[in-house]
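**Sequence with structure:**
===
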Amino acid sequence: MNYTIKKLTILDEMLGTLNLVKELTPDVLEADYKSMLLEMIPHNYLQVGVYEGKKLIAVSGYWICTKIYCGKYLEIDNFVVAKEYRSKNIGQMLVDWMLDEAKKRGCKVALLDAYVENFKAHKFYYKQGFIARGFHYLKWL
């Protein structure tokens, strides 16, 4: 198959990813998604999509930021490959694009969070060379 990768930089392009994002976060509402994107985009948030023709088959958000412990980094956020396209190297293609983008942007590291119960994602990220370095904690307010 012939796949293309496209950087999504504007709100209208990103809004078109909602159905795929819902595979990871099913409860997100369209109005909330739009509101969050409007808040995130001015803070260096971007997305990248993988397409088969005009059909979006994978998407990931990402941020370029800096932390004291690691310096400049690319954070992978909401990485989703459509169920029917998993195990077809689409995720590999998307990770490769992200790591290349990180290098082009002068990042020292790529990092991400994966849900504790998402064992398939853990296996995938280990296979990509990521290591589990710590715990991500949260407290709902």
Remarks:
- The mean pLDDT is 93.
- Helices lie at 11-15, 18-21, 30-40, 90-104, 119-127.
- The chain has five helices and five strands.
- The two ends are 46 Å apart (CA to CA).
